[in-house]
Amino acid sequence: RYCHVDVPDELLRDLLPGPVTLVLRRSEELNKDLNPFTSLVGVRIPNHPFMRDLARACSGPLALTSANISSQGSTLTVSEFQDLWPQLSLIIDGGPIGDIQSPECRLGSTVVDLSVAGKFSIIRPGCALTPTVEILRQKYGLEPESS
């Protein structure tokens, strides 16, 4: 509804839900104020029960950002971004979003651009890079987009 999906449904099921953000061409139905200077939009379905319940309770898409300052490690609990609380309107503690002892969990999602047919481009390696690239190349025959 909010983006043009030009990949097989099975590919979506192989990568989502999970720690992968798919960048696709946005549709006209998506609010033009969300990422207004690009024709693309990132779509993620986290594999976290609280976030999935929250998304189901909303009538439209959720536009979210990570609870950290850009280029810093991802936070996994609300107490880890306590310094940002004064700048926020609402904080909901749905529990940890990963293994707080695992450095890989702090890499954030793997962000992959699938907006070009037959190609993919890794925007951010993130925590699921290797399995994501394997799925895209080996199972679906997609090729890395040349820079």
From TrEMBL:
Its EC number is 2.7.7.87. GO terms for molecular function: double-stranded RNA binding; L-threonylcarbamoyladenylate synthase; tRNA binding. Transmembrane segments: none annotated. SUPFAM superfamilies: YrdC/RibB. It catalyses: L-threonine + hydrogencarbonate + ATP = L-threonylcarbamoyladenylate + diphosphate + H2O. Cytoplasmic and mitochondrial threonylcarbamoyl-AMP synthase required for the formation of a threonylcarbamoyl group on adenosine at position 37 (t(6)A37) in tRNAs that read codons beginning with adenine. Catalyzes the conversion of L-threonine, HCO(3)(-)/CO(2) and ATP to give threonylcarbamoyl-AMP (TC-AMP) as the acyladenylate intermediate, with the release of diphosphate. Participates in t(6)A37 formation in cytoplasmic and mitochondrial tRNAs. May regulate the activity of some transporters. Belongs to the SUA5 family. This is Threonylcarbamoyl-AMP synthase. The lineage of its organism: Eukaryota, Metazoa, Chordata, Craniata, Vertebrata. The gene is Yrdc_0.
